[in-house]
Amino acid sequence: MGRKQAKEKMKNGEDGPYKEAMKDLLDAKEKEAKVKEERWKETKEIQERKLLFAERKLVWDQEQKIMFCDVSTLEPDVRTYVLAMRTQIAASKVAALNGGFDGSSGFGGEFGDGNGEV
Q: Region labeled Disordered — which residues (predicted)?
């Protein structure tokens, strides 16, 4: 093949194996980018779930400390606060059991079928 014929092929887009190889390479890169993006999304979701779990555990631990601390040794102002928080925590747990569960009270899901029946 002469130089003139090679130039004609280049003009007409007939690059032969080089064009196919480049296309295959670009396809592979696109597929790799999609896989990488999917992995990143999965990792992000896992991290978000871990963070949510840690947050719920922290709330649960704080609620446990408030519910089971000895109020007889506390100062009057602190005692009033702890008793008010106990009332609030108890009310939120009752509401959760009666179907008004919003997921922020430390439990992992609804009880029963969501209408107060267990």
A: 1-20
Cα–Cα nearest to 94, from 111, 73, 81, 79? 111
User: Quick one: tokens of 54?
Assistant: 């840690």
Can you tell me which residue has the tokens 């009666």? 98
Cα(38)–Cα(35) distance, integer angstroms = 5
Q: Is the full-model pTM beyond 0.70?
A: no
Contacts of 115 (CB under 8 A, 6+ apart): 99
